[in-house]
Give the backbone structure.
Amino acid sequence: MFDLPTETKAARKAYAKFRKSLLQDGFHRMQFSIYTRHCPSQENADVHIGRVQSRLPPDGEIRVMTITDKQMERMDVFLGKKRQQPEPPPLQLLLF
């Protein structure tokens, strides 16, 4: 989980670079600013935690939580209204 400032152009650039580094390291977005990665062992997780820590922008904040497969499968997910895809544009413009 991370919180990075985006008020300035330089901060937005640092945010984008950090997010891209997560994706390149095999993380997947779970929610806004929450990324997950499966690691087969604690030793492997420690390697990725070190990488994330080394890429932290100066004004950022990161929180890392390590959970087991069993804990992850017990997660409850609640959804409100389903987000719907916007209606596709017509193939041809219709005038009445």
Observations:
- Helices lie at 9-24, 42-54, 69-73.
- The radius of gyration is 19 Å.
